[in-house]
Every structure is written in C-alpha cells, then in structure tokens.
TrEMBL record:
Pfam families membership: MS_channel_2nd (PF00924), MS_channel_3rd (PF21082)
Broad class of the protein's primary localization: membrane
Protein name: Small-conductance mechanosensitive channel
The keyword Transit peptide appears for this protein: no
Organism of this sequence: Mycoplana dimorpha
Domain Mechanosensitive ion channel MscS: 623-690
Family per record: Belongs to the MscS (TC 1.A.23) family.
Length: 833
C-alpha cells in the first residue's frame, strides 16, 4: 500500500471523530455526567449519627468535670474535632450536589402548561434527582446544626474554665485557729496514708515486679549517663566557665549564663521524662502513685532550673563571671533566699499532688498553700533588707549597700501583700501570685538573658570574640564576613529558642493546659485567616522546603546531564549551556508551582492581582520583560552561544554568560560588558564563530615599484605554504594596487580556528620580512632601507663616467656669465676714435 493510500485511510478514520454528531431524535437527551458513588449520602448520615452520639457522650463528661480544669481542657479539642467532622460530612456530599445541579440545568426547566410533555425517562430522572437533592440538603442542614451545637459546647467549656479559674483565685476561705487544728489532724492522717500507700506499692513492686523496676532504673541511669557524658562532650565549652580567663568579656558571660541554664535544665528534664516513661512503660507505677511520682519529677526539674539560674546570674564563687553588680555576701544570700522560695513553692505543689492522689480534705490544701504563701512573703521581706549593691568598679569582697529605694519598696509591698492575702483568706490568689513570683519570674529572667545574648551575639564582630566563634573559624576556616553571618543566624536562632521555651512555660503558669497550647500552636501553624484568605505557616514552610528540594534536584540534574551525558556525547559547549539554562528555567518554574501548591495558595484568587500587575508590567517593567523574552529567544535560536567571538556595535569580545536579562561579553582587554538581550535581538551582531571557527586572514605587503610583481607573488605563496594555514581553500595573493613608487599586494589565507588568527598573522609577517630581506627586495615607505646594487666593472666605469659628465654639465650650467670690462681712453685722443 502506497503512502498516499495510507494517508487517505487515516483521514477517513479520523473524519467521523471530527464531525459533530447528527441529531436524529426529536427531543435528544443531554449527555450524562459521571455519577458519584451511590452510598455518599448514606455514609454522610452514618458519620453524622456517630458524631451526634459522641457529642452526647462528651456533654455528659463535661457536666461531670465542671470542677476539673485539666479534664475540661482535654475535652475541648475533642468537641472541636466533632465540629470539624460534621463539616467534613457536609463537604463530602458537595460533589454529588454539584453533579445533580449541573444535570438539572442540562435537563432544563419543567415544561409549562400547553407545551409538549417531557419524555418519560427524563421525567423519572428529574424526579429522582430532585429527591436526591432534597436528601443532600437535609444532610447539609443536619451537619450545620451539629457543627453549631459542638461549637457552642466548646465555647461553654471555655466559659466554664474561665469561671473556674476566677473562682479558684478569688474564693475566700475563713482562716482561724480551727483551720490549723483540722489541718494538723488531717496532715497526720495523710502522712499515715501516704506511708501505707507508698510502702505497700514498693513492697508489691519489689516482690512481684523487681525485674521491671531494676530494668527501668538501669535504663534510666544509662540514659542519665549518656546525657551527662554527651552533654559534657558536646556542650562543655558552652556551659563551663574557663578558670584561665580572668576578665571575661560581657558577651562571653551572657552566653555562658544562658547556655548553662538552658542546656542542663533541658537535659535534666529529658532524664526525668525518660525515667517516668520507663517506669510507666514497665507497668511499675500504680494509678494512685503515678501522679505523685510525676509531680515529684516536675518539682525536681523546677528546683534544678531555679538553682542553675541563680548560679548563672549571681555566680557566688566566681565574681568575675557575675552578671549583676552585687557583693559576694549579697550574692550568697540572694542565692539561698531564691532557692528557699522555690523550695517552698515546690513543696506546696508536690503536697497538692499528694492531696489529690490520696483524696485529702480541702482544709489540708488550704493550710499548705497558706503556709507556703506566708513563707514566700517573709523571704521577700528578708530580701528587701539585704545590702547587696556595689558601686561600679568596687571590690566584690567589700560590704554592699542597700537596694535602690524603689526596688526595696516593691519587694516589701509584695511580701506584705502576699502575707495579707493569705491571712484574710484569699489563699488561692496568694498561692497564684507566689507561683508567678518564683516560677514565672525565673522564666522571665532566663528569657531576658537569652534576648540579651541574642542581641550581643548579633553585633558585628561579636561572635569572633567568643570561644565558639574561634573554634568555628579554626575548624572551618571562616573569615570575618562568614563569622558575622553565622553570628546573625545564631542571634535569630537564640531569639526563636527563647520564645519556644519561654512563652509556653509562662502560659502554663498562668493556668493554661498543655492541650490549649497545642491547639493554639496547631491553629497558628495550620490556619491563619485574614478575611477570606487562609494562611498556613506549616503549608508555607512545606512549600519552601519542596521548592528548595526542587532547586536541588534541578541543579543535580543539570550537573549530571552536562557533566555525564553531553560531555560523553561531545556536544558543543554552546549547546550544553543552552540546554543547561533551559533546564534551569524549567526546573525553577516547576519547583515554584509545586511549592505554591503545597503552600495551599489558590492561584485563581490572585487573578485580579495578576491582571492589575499586567498593566504595571506593560508600562513600568516593559524593558525587563523585553529583555527576558529576548533572552529566551537567544537560547532558542542560538545566534551566538557561550564562548563565541561576537561584535555588537562598538563591543567586541567573547560571550561569557547568557542570563535572563542580559548577556556578558568579555573584551580582549578582560573587561566585562553587560549588554541587554533586547539590544542583541534588535541590533546587528557579528559572530566570528557562528557555525564553525574557520576564518580568513589578510597580510598587506607594499614594495618598491622597481621589483618584479610575479617574483613577489611567488615569494608570498612560498611563505604561506610553510605557514600553519589551511590548504583548502588554498592561500592566494592579490595584486591590490600600484603606483610610480610602490606595488601593493595582499596575502590571503584561511585558518581552522579564527581564535588563533593573531598568532598565525605574526608568524606570517615575520616569515615574509625575513624572506624579503633574504631576496633583497626592499619595502616601500618612508622608512624603507637602502640596499646596495652589484655591477660588473665595465658597467661600473660607464656609470661612473656618465655621473662625472653629468656633474660637469651641472657645474657649467650653474656658473654666472661675466660682462667684458671697458678699454681705457688715451690722453688727447678722441673718445670715439
């Protein structure tokens, strides 16, 4: 079968697909859309029914936990999740609803009276679709009702927690001697219960779960040893004070103080968490023992944190590392006072956990909080009378001076206020204020030190003065600029660490539960609404990560394709550059689209903005867009490539780089000239190496007119035959011009690489000059040399005689004509005689 017949059959086969279908029926049925799954509505109803039962169960739990803030905090996220589940059930039917709506639109309106009736199949389908749409509307309404009910319950939980917090703080308890008597009696009973409970638990564990206990303790000790040794090895220089430094720099003191607080505290917290998790995982802890053990670990970590903070700031034994200007005795008194307040607060919280675990009476809780508040108030009064202050430059070993009047007044008022609140019966408020003074105060001081450290390390040249900066410079050979950039990054990292560790700790102290912080963080990082726009920080970070990965993959593919495939295929360097650049543009565009999609940015919502920007681009960015498009045209058409020798106007040199906006040309003087791409597209550009590197050279030669032109031509061709020029096309000599004194010739030859034309010209000129001198052919011009002429003796005598005769004739011609002198007149004679 011939090619024409094949094409004819192919055309006949495709033609029916291109022609519109013929209408044979009087009332054609519209094309059917793809149907959604039949069980979509039933699944949504089942999901809503299940959510409704769960909501009823949660409502009952909320009513039972009215006085338990932590339990309410746990229930609120579950209620909010049910609201989202209800909305998701409604969303699941949206696709089916859109299908039904589109199908009804295709069927058109119901025929009015007097019009021909619809076909029976269409009528049945319309009724079925209307029924299904009504069912979907019912599902949507039920889902919205359930979502509203769940949202109202979540708001109710928030209001209950707010009221519970207010009642706890502002509830007044009558304080009398009877309270302490009842507290002593209840305390004795609780001590007995505690001893019996803990003793019974320990005997049971030792008798029946000794292996589990030993395994948990051994693993805990191993984890502690690893944390200690690893921390000393990795973070030792950051937390240890070098005794050889007599006067450490302020930034060094700040950094050592901050890291000596945070790193050991985090390590101790990790150790405590690991111990509790191991004991719980090995089923060693009983339900009544677990809260007490958990609170014991928490207060131990808290005491270690306060102790590390006081040692870092006050440095009682190392005054040269002290951050505040206080005396040695004042530093020691302040350290013990702060630790005593922290201990009183820790004992109060631990005993509170014991009371809850053992079900102790409320009077015992009131008594312990009252005593802790009074103790902390008395310690604050004691601190107000300490004399720790020093003058600038004063010896730390000397006696200090009192606090400034304002600070001592604040301390005294706070101490008296705590004692007064506790005595008049506001024990909950006094306990809350005491906790904020000790724990929140410690967190705020640590955050302040961290912020000062971040600010100090971000100063230009600050990192180079620290031990860490010196180690980085020595290990990675970093210069001052790199160290400053690392210092700026470290500063931002410290700020972020301070916020991530400090803010949640303060929120926990102010009565918020971990679930609240987790919910807020999840909402902050997943959904921030600005009007109708929803922004997700997690989505944006994921988009940036995917964009960075896309760039890395693009760069790797560029290097692999250029260095492996195209090099082995001996592809022209210019082609390699064009392919590499095109792949780079495509990879960046693809990575950008993937990143935008992952970030959840709806490009359709930006259509109006893009339309407005297009007008600005048309006027303000016209040249930039023109250069960009010109760059793409240069890469596609390739009128020149990287490495070509081009001439563009007054610019001549080699193409070094073709970018999006401009092309870099390096002249022969090693000057880089940036030429906009639009100039190269719209102007005339000469390319010496466009298709190949073949080039022609011309050597002009001028001799005296007395020379034989054929001989000169032969000499020039002989010189060209010995030179490194192409034999095909062969060199040739052109007799350009002649005059009465000169003969002008031009030697023309071709070289394989026009880039070597300069050296070939030099070699040809040298060879031509040497050959002309050898053949005694003088060059014409003002500086032409005098060449002696050899003759036989007879010719020389004849020439000499002719020269002498010419000289004699020239002498006679030059001699002047003399007049004859008059004769003298004789005496007496006639003058005319």
């Amino acid at each position: 079968m011939t090619t024409s017949k094949r094409l004819l059959f192919l055309l006949l086969a495709i033609l029916p697909l291109l022609l519109p279908p013929l209408a044979f029926a009087e009332e054609p049925a519209p094309p059917a859309l793809p149907a959604a799954p039949a069980n979509t509505i039933s699944e949504a109803n089942d999901s809503l029914e299940k959510a409704r039962r769960q909501l009823a169960d949660l409502r009952k739990q909320v009513d039972d936990a009215r006085d338990n803030d932590s339990k309410l905090a746990e229930l609120k996220p579950k209620v909010e999740q049910l609201a989202r589940t209800a909305l998701e059930a409604s969303v699941s039917t949206r696709e089916r609803f859109n299908y039904i709506k589109g199908r009804l639109d295709q069927l058109g309106p119901v025929p009015a009276e007097g019009q021909p009736p619809e076909a029976e199949p269409i009528k049945e389908e319309r009724a079925k679709l209307a029924e299904e749409r009504a069912a979907i509307n019912a599902v949507t309404g039920s889902a919205e009702s359930l979502s509203i009910e769940a949202t109202q319950m979540a708001n109710q939980i928030t209001e209950m927690r707010r009221n519970l917090f207010s009642e706890t703080l502002l509830k007044r308890t009558a304080v009398s001697t009877g309270v302490f008597e009842d507290a002593l009696t209840a305390g004795a009973e609780q001590g007995t219960d505690l001893q019996r409970t803990v003793g019974g638990w320990f005997r049971f564990v030792w008798a029946f779960k000794r292996e589990s206990l030993m395994a948990a303790v051994s693993l805990s000790l191993l984890i502690g040893l690893l944390l200690y040794s690893g921390g000393r090895r990795v973070a030792g220089p950051l937390i240890e004070r070098n005794r050889r430094i007599e006067k450490p720099h302020y930034i060094t003191r700040l950094m050592i103080a901050f890291w000596s607080i945070t790193i050991p505290t985090l390590a101790v917290g990790a150790f405590a968490f690991a111990c509790y998790s191991l004991l719980y995982s090995f089923n060693v802890l009983r339900p009544d023992i677990a809260p007490m053990v958990s609170q014991l670990f928490v207060v131990c970590v808290g005491l270690y944190f306060v102790s590390a903070l006081t040692r870092a700031v006050l440095a009682p034994k190392r005054p040269e590392w002290r951050l505040v200007n206080v005396s040695n005795s004042g530093a020691r008194r302040l350290e013990w006072s702060i630790f005593a307040m922290a201990s009183a607060n820790a004992v109060d919280y631990f005993l509170g956990a014991v009371n809850v675990a053992l079900g102790s009476p409320v009077v015992l809780t009131v008594a312990k909080s009252l005593i802790a508040s009074i103790v902390i108030g008395v310690i604050l009064l004691w601190i107000a009378f300490i004399r720790p202050m020093l003058r600038p430059g004063e010896d730390p070993a000397s006696e200090g001076r009192p606090w400034p009047r304002a600070l001592s007044t604040v301390l005294m008022l706070t101490g008296f206020g705590l004692i007064a609140l506790a005595v008049i019966g506001y024990v909950g408020l006094a306990r809350f204020v005491a906790t904020q003074i000790v724990v929140t105060g410690a967190i705020l001081v640590t955050m302040y030190i961290g912020i000062l450290s971040g600010r100090a390390i971000g100063v230009q040249g600050a990192l180079a003065r620290t031990y860490l900066g010196q180690r980085l410079a020595e290990r990675y050979q970093l210069n001052e600029v790199a160290l400053d950039q690392a210092g700026l990054a470290a500063s931002l990292g410290i700020y972020l660490l301070v916020l991530l560790l400090g803010v949640p700790g303060i929120l926990l102290q102010w009565g918020f539960q971990p679930g609240d912080i987790e919910s807020w963080a999840l909402q902050l990082f997943t959904e921030i609404r600005l009007g109708s726009i929803s922004i997700s920080i997690v989505g944006i970070l994921a988009g940036l990560v995917l964009f960075a990965l896309g760039l890395l993959v693009t760069r790797w593919f560029q290097r692999w394709l250029d260095g492996t495939v195209m090099v082995r295929s001996h592809v022209d360097p210019g082609v390699r550059n064009s392919v590499r650049t095109a792949i780079g543009y495509a990879g960046v565009a693809l990575a950008g689209l993937i990143g935008i999609s992952a970030a959840g940015i709806n490009l359709s919502s930006l259509a109006l903005v893009a339309g407005a920007l297009s007008l600005g681009i048309g006027f303000g960015l016209q040249n930039i867009v023109s250069n960009f498009v010109s760059g793409l045209i240069l890469l596609a058409e390739r009128p020149f490539k990287v490495g070509d020798w081009v001439v563009a106007g007054t610019t001549e040199g080699f193409v070094k780089r073709i970018s999006v906006r401009a092309t870099e040309i390096e002249t022969f003087q090693r000057q880089t000239i940036i030429v906009p791409n639009s100039v190269l597209i719209n102007g005339q550009v000469g390319n010496w190496t466009h298709r190949n590197k073949l080039g022609r050279i011309e050597i002009p030669v001028t001799v005296f007119s007395g020379n034989d032109p054929r001989r000169v031509t032969e000499l020039l061709l002989e010189v060209a035959a010995a030179a490194p020029v192409l034999r095909n096309p062969e060199p040739n000599v052109v007799f350009v011009n002649f005059s009465s004194s000169t003969l002008e010739f031009e030697l023309r030859a071709f070289v394989a690489d026009v880039l070597s034309a300069g050296s070939v010209k030099t070699e040809l000129r040298t060879a031509i000059l040497e050959r002309l001198r050898q053949e005694e052919i003088p060059l014409a011009g003002p500086g032409a040399p005098t060449i002696p002429i050899t003759m036989d003796p007879e010719s020389a005598q004849l020439v000499s005689a002719m020269i002498e005769n010419a000289k004699a004739q020239a002498g006679r011609t030059a001699e002047p004509v003399r007049k004859p002198s008059p004769k003298p007149v004789e005496e007496g004679g006639d003058e005319t005689g």
